[in-house]
Amino acid sequence: xxxxxxxxxxxxxxxxxxxxxxxxxxxxxxxVLTVAIFxxxxxxxxxxxxx
Length: 51
Fold this sequence. Notes:
With 51 residues, the chain is mainly α. The chain has a two-stranded antiparallel sheet with strand order 1-2. It has one domain (3-49). 49% of the residues lie in helices and 8% in strands. This is Potassium-transporting ATPase.
């Protein structure tokens, strides 16, 4: 959901945007997934180097 769909703190769904300590959940999810993917790539690289 973009910020344009939310007005006066209420989104079209009738609920306030999901936030944790003032951070949008979508941003938090993006950061967590990005870190997890790079960690996984690092593990795969270590395994491949060991072959």
